[in-house]
# Entry
Amino acid sequence: MVKVPTPYSKARKAVFLDRDGVINRNLNKYVLSIESVQLIPRSLQAIANLAQSEYAVVIVTNQSAIGRGLITEEIAQNINSFILEKIQSANGIIDGIYLCPHHPKTHCVCRKPNPGMLIQAAAELNLDLENSWLIGDAITDIQASIAANVKPIMVGTGRGTEQAANLNSDKLAHVPFVKDLYEAIEDILSNA
# Structure
């Protein structure tokens, strides 16, 4: 009998990253082109540091600009590819990118605050959700992480500083709040 190896026989821990507001700036009128991508200082270095660890790194991003008809899914994929190239050129590794293209009114299972993208990634990449983290800049990121039984961290970049006030009102006071992705990764790696 020939044994077919699986890429990862043991479930891996992961760090899920929101894209806009965590890796690159979250623009009021959406990130609609490669030219509008503005990387957040230290985000590429943070991902490079994470690449040296045992964690899988997965981007999970709501992109309702597709569902709103502002960009095509192809343009969104081109933006993701551009960001991925920047990450790789800085010695970072991304194990997967999951994108929800739906308009918020469709009430799909993949759009954060729903945990669909995290659950799909866990199934496809053999990830251990209970020992994983999600870093986001919005309450919806935090809600998705909790729904998937993933530990959340909120960053002050993007919408984070504004939305952090909701942590107490939404009974999420236990959620760590840090300056940016770099600090979040430092916290995760120092506690690993």
Summary: The two ends are 38 Å apart (CA to CA). Confidence is low (pLDDT under 50) at residues 1-6. The helical segments are 43-51, 64-67, 73-89, 116-125, 139-147, 160-169, 181-190.
